[in-house]
Write a structure and sequence with these properties.
It contains eleven helices and four strands; from the N terminus they run αβαβββααααααααα. By secondary structure, it is α+β, with helices and mostly antiparallel strands. Strands 1-2-4-3 form a four-stranded mixed β-sheet, sandwiched between helices. The N and C termini lie far apart (38 Å).
Length: 234
Amino acid sequence: MIVPAAEVDAMALSGFSSQNQKARAAGRLVNSGAEYDRLDRIAKRLQAQVPVFRADTAEWKWELALIDAPVLNATCAPGGKITFYTGLVRKLKLTDDEIAMVMGHEIAHALREHGRERMSEAKATGTVTTLAKVLAPDKALTVDLANKASYYLFSLPNSREHESEADTIGLELGARAGYDPRAAVSVWEKMAAASNGAGGAEFLSTHPSNQTRIASLTSMQARVAPLYAAAKQK
């Protein structure tokens, strides 16, 4: 973790803001209505449980962006910047439980600072040499640095270890928030099926899904079932 968290957070915030500005200019940024309210409600329930894993997340400035585009994708940038695309929810006809499992998985990547870890590895190997200069004098990221930050934070596929961590933490996070952990299995089955259709699923380009993964999520059910049951009783 040789890249400071503050630098990564600054990059993530800049990328998140730029993304939203472009979506707003195109008339695709959704910040009200039934779809947004649904995702926001789920996000808030998950966020309430996040301090169980990291106490400092209570200080994060959580934000949700919903972009109206036929894209099967979702992310959570460092610092709690969540992005969902309507295509993911609509095309896969996701239930609240399934949305929570996807969102929990993405939040887990942010909690474990997987993006920061990837950027640190890149800096250590000399792949990226300018990360120390996160902010230009005008307090805005240079185009080149912004593109590099976006690649390492959002586009570069996660390692098998990172994906396993996100699956495990995301499953428990969702269960603690009162969402059925069995939905983690069904949502990945839907995504795997979507990847075989026309155009594939962008989400799966950075989130490999296969029978081994589904089997792993299935094997975790007994561990998180009591957490789900306890949450439902509250």
